[in-house]
Amino acid sequence: MDTLIVLLRIAAVLHLGLLAAGLMMPKVVGMRAHLGRMPPFIEQLFWTYYAFIGLCLIGFSAITFVFADALASGSGLARAVSTFLAVFWTMRLGAALWVFDVGPYLTTPARAWGYRGLNLAFACLPIVYGLAAAQPAWLR
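The chain above was modelled as a monomer; its predicted structure follows.
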């Protein structure tokens, strides 16, 4: 279980990395200019959703870090939370790979590498939470 707890704590830190990347995104993609052409309600709605996503990342990180031992315990609630997070991050990885066209924004090597790093985080999170949900015998 110690290995799983360490992996969960790394996942908690990855969430904060995603938060940091998300905070840089408005400037990188010129989001204010794009949203400025939308009706005020749509712009407000977007920023509200954006803030809630940030809040979720902080919450996922805090819960995972503080309760890593509980998530690694294999209890019903731990498996349910871990399953939810594994599915959530699997779907987010799918959106990154097959829905979003970020090509126009990957204008520098740093942005391209940053995007690869984000996708790596999106790939690692479902693996860690999947392990916490499945509780494979080889991990114990």
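Residues 101 and 122 are 16 Å apart (CA to CA).
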